[in-house]
Design the sequence.
């Protein structure tokens, strides 16, 4: 108590199951963001994380955007 916490110098971001099983969480977050953007633009499409994972597993984000 009272001591200053150590400074964070590095953050590891893992979205492809390299360090932990994070790929499904990354696709869920991607689906949420995509759906929010589409709804704001009144586009009647809705995606799930599992759908995006089936369609795009193994691809990088740029390939997903250009699909």
Sequence:
């Amino acid at each position: 108590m009272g001591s200053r916490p150590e400074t964070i110098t590095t953050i590891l971001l893992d979205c492809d199951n390299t360090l932990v099983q994070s790929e499904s969480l990354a696709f869920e977050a991607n689906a949420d963001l995509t759906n929010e953007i589409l709804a704001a633009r009144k586009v009647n499409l809705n995606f799930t994380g599992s759908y995006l994972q089936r369609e795009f597993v193994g691809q990088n984000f740029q390939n997903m955007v250009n699909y």
Q: What stands out?
A: The mean pLDDT is 86. Residues 35 and 46 are 6 Å apart (CA to CA). The chain is about 45% helix and 0% strand. Helices lie at 23-40, 49-56, 61-65.
